[in-house]
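Minutes, project check-in
Item: structure for the 377-residue chain
Input as provided by the requester:
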Amino acid sequence: MTVNARQLIDALQHRYANIQGESSISADELVSFIRSIPETEIPADGNLISLIQKANPDWQLGAAEQTVLASSRDCLTLIFNLINLAPEIQQRILTTTPIVAAELLHNPALPLQDDAINIFTVLDQLLDATIGWSGDQGRAGEKVLAQVTAAATALRAEPADYEALNAALTNYLDKERSRVQKLEERLAASESGKLRSQKSRGMAAALINSAAEGQKLTASIIGFLIGPWFESLQLLAINCGVEGEEWSRATKLTETIIWTYQPINADSSEQANAEKQRLYRILEHLTDEIRDMLLALEHSADNLEAALADLEEDHRVDGFRSGPGLRGIRTYRYTQSPRAAVARQSAASCCAKLTAWSLASGSSIQKVKSQLALSWP
């Protein structure tokens, strides 16, 4: 149903039934005066009727004019109460009150016309842009405030180009929405990355602990496992997950590294020699396999080569795996006892602190070394 200006005025007069009388001035004269009201004189409550009567005591406003002015005031008041705009924004929107009143006096049915861009189209854009605005939003907030100030000033210009204003605001708001969306995506990616990182740390630690628990290991290989190898397993879990072939390969490689340190238990010399030959074949390619996996991950740990050199040196010791010749060999045990004291430290720092802790507490060094298991940085 189409509603014309007369029908709208008649409906509003029922809302403001206490207003009566005929106008003693022309509509053009009233509109001209309203448009000329300085910003500094606009009432904070938007009550233009009182201002007009005070400035022009001999004027008599008609029922229709008073109805439009009262309804525009109540409309803005309701909007401010519902949206709860920041004072800086509300003050700037309030400066458009005389222009809104003048437009409604010219065409009371203007808000119902959806097919044309008018002052209400622009105000809708401004209100959408400023919901939630506050003065502590930095440069982005300053830009929004500048846009509102410029738009409010332009609306008071005569004649105002509503189409150009609406287009400019639409362009600005589209860019702002795009910027905010990118920030939200970055934040989501950052938080998601933190969660993936935490999960990968747990999976990497669980793999190493499971494979190394109770096994004979040297200080150098423990340092390798909780240092470069732990970092590599985290990266693998993040990039490839823990369900695929890559993680299975890393699991097997971890178990193999640890297996090469275990003593040979054989019932005969033939079995011992066969076990040694198998070990030598594996050792011949072990460090290359480790490098290949890290290369596939595009991961280069600063201390990797030094750790691999220590690993190779361990396996060159005479009597290795057949007797007590291997230097510093210990049994890897996982326990959480000193974890709180070394949480979030680097691997090197953990090692130094745990060694000192063992000396002070009288615990054996093998237990201390093994307790690095989940005291990861």
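Outcome recorded: The two ends are 70 Å apart (CA to CA).
No further action items on this chain.
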